[in-house]
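ok new one. same drill as before - structure tokens go in, u give me an amino acid for every spot. 164 of them this time. try not to just spam alanines like last time pls lmao
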């Protein structure tokens, strides 16, 4: 367990110095798949999402996606709403960085439509929801032309019209 604690502390140090990839690499050295250590699924999910977020700070979608894919097996059974939301945000950003704009737009739109303003101890900022909606619009505009893009644009137009 001491290696785990040392890696977490070093990652915190790298993160405080805004060395995102180094922090992510430090955390990714923790063996989350080992049967030796009994780590619960919430811990594994939180580390996978944290590592993905750190890689995304450096716009490294490839490494972030590897950890979001690991998290996808854990998030389906998770009741931890904050982690689930962080997972969704990371996944949308990965799709955005990989230029899968229509898929990213749909994910951002889903995030922007969250009803609850309080999830666990976290309060969801109205600006964050507006930012997600704005990202959905941007990604939709950047998506390849086609009927699905037109449907998403029409839906986003209705949402904006409703907000005005």
């Amino acid at each position: 367990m001491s290696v785990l604690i040392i890696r977490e502390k070093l990652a915190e140090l790298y993160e405080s110095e805004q060395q995102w990839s180094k922090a992510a690499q430090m955390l990714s050295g923790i063996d989350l798949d080992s049967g030796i250590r009994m780590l619960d699924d919430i811990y594994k999910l939180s580390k996978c999402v944290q590592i993905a977020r750190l890689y995304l700070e450096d716009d490294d979608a490839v490494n972030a996606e590897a950890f979001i894919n690991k998290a996808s097996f854990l998030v389906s059974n998770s009741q931890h709403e904050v982690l689930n939301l962080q997972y969704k945000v990371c996944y949308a950003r990965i799709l955005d960085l990989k230029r899968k704009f229509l898929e990213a737009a749909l994910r951002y739109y889903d995030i922007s439509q969250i009803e609850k303003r309080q999830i666990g101890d976290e309060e969801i900022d109205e600006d964050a929801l507006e930012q997600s909606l704005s990202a959905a619009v941007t990604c939709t505009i950047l998506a390849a032309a086609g009927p699905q893009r037109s449907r998403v644009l029409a839906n986003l137009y209705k949402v904006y019209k409703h907000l005005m």
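The longest strand covers residues 118-119. and btw The chain has two domains: 1-98, 101-164.
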